[in-house]
Amino acid sequence: MTVLVTGAAGFIGSATVRALLVRGERVVGIDDLNEYYDPALKRARLAEIDEHHGKAFTFHQVDFADEGALAEFAAPFRFDRIVHFGAQAGVRYSLTNPAAYARSNLMGQINILQLARAQETAHLVYASSSSVYGANHSLPFRVEDRADQPVSLYAATKKSGELMAESYAHLYRLPMTGLRFFTVYGPWGRPDMAMWLFTAALFAGLPLTLFNNGEMRRDFTYIDDIVRGVLACVDTAPIDNGEEKAGGSNSPHAIYNLGNHRSEELMRMIGLLEQATGKTAILDRQPMQPGDVKDTFADLTAIERDLGFAPTTSIDEGIPRFVDWFKRYHRID
């Protein structure tokens, strides 16, 4: 099986590439290696894959939001599956650079849908986000809940991506699965996310900036659990039988939450980071930021029922693993 993974140098993308290669798939990865965060980290992820898997993986630097570049790249290939995890991520950055989100998350989504349609790909798995739940105050978040009140442009583009996928599933009967990720963390993580930012601040002796005065809860999900869920989805395309799928579609299009089903207080996460680093946090409490939400909590009923997925890693286990990797990566004694 040949699998295309977009965002292959990203956090979840690179972890998915490694897992597919371990089980013997041929993987082709693309990424534009943009400078939203340090491209050196992205290249290091790719180097780690190359070191362990060699010729089973091929990488191409391609911007999937560029229709012509994507078509030229894809011409020699035939993809059995597409895992589309490339995107412009981050809630706060969408407040200052909205055009990047429109280009990557809207135009880029259309381009990948068109590629899947042209190649008659057997299954397209794409990344959505827990951010789509926006102003929803019903916890835990269920895929059956309304998700039409985004509180950030990032969330609006991810919800738009789901709607575009639904239209292609309906019109062209393309089997697709959308995954609403919940606060993913772990080795090779993203340096713009709280887990990395707080760990770096602890080792540097700098204040940790806590929005909403630290009164927030997140469904922290360890990367290994995420990847197991992704692979289960890759292997199980929605059936085009007219029956309602997870998320409400009658087309071959399912939407699942992929989280830990545990909503943890931010201060508990900080306490575990203090233990793992041996440092005491200096806290800088700030008001809630525009576009942010107070709580996230994934209901996993649908993905447990359909795919048998259940996470196994608590933050008590996952945070020390992340800190150990962080120390090795940054050569901290």
Can you walk through the features of this model?
The structure is a single chain. With 333 residues, this protein is of the alpha/beta class. The chain has one domain: NAD(P)-binding Rossmann-like Domain (Rossmann fold, 3-Layer(aba) Sandwich), CATH 3.40.50. It is 41% helix and 17% strand. Helix 6 links the parallel strand 5 and strand 6. Helix 1 runs parallel beside helix 2 and helix 7 packs across helix 9. The N and C termini lie far apart (42 Å). 47% of the residues are buried. The model has no long low-confidence stretch (mean pLDDT 95).
Low-confidence stretches: none
State the CATH topology.
Answer: Rossmann fold
Please describe the biggest sheet, giving its number of strands, its sense, and whether it closes into a barrel. 7 strands, parallel
Largest beta sheet: strand ordering: 3-2-1-4-5-6-11
Would you tell me the overall average pLDDT? 95
Number of domain units: 1
> What structural category characterises the helix and strand content?
alpha/beta
Provide the helix percentage. Answer: 40-55%
SSE topology string: EHEHEHEHHEHEEHEEEHEEHEHH
CATH class membership:
Alpha Beta
CA(first)-CA(last) distance: 42 Å
CATH architecture: 3-Layer(aba) Sandwich
Shape assignment: globular
The count of DSSP E runs of length 2 or more, i.e. the number of strands, is 13
Give the strand content: 15-25%
